Amino acid sequence: MLEQFKAIIQGRVQGVGYRFYAERIANQLGVKGYVKNLWNGEVEVLAQGDKPTLELFLTKLREGPRLAKVTDIKVEWQPITETYSTFDIDY
Length: 91
What we know:
Elements (H helix, E strand, L loop, with lengths): L1 E11 L5 H12 L2 E6 L5 E8 H13 L5 E10 L8 E3 L2
Parallel strand pairs: 2-5
Antiparallel strand pairs: 1-3, 1-4, 2-3
Helix pairs in contact: 1-2
């Protein structure tokens, strides 16, 4: 069954390749949605997939790329209102 979450990633997550990391991991796992930088230095991820895959994706998002330092992730599981066919970096 398709599930969805929106996550706000806090810490040193801009300027360290975090969006490209998230996109690469999402594509490896078959997760759909987007990742984008927010004006306040955080990163937003909207992800769709089956629950076990999304849980694994969240684990990878907590790790982040080598130069990142994730201090917190706020996750909100949501009903799906729009389905995505790819995972993209949103600018």
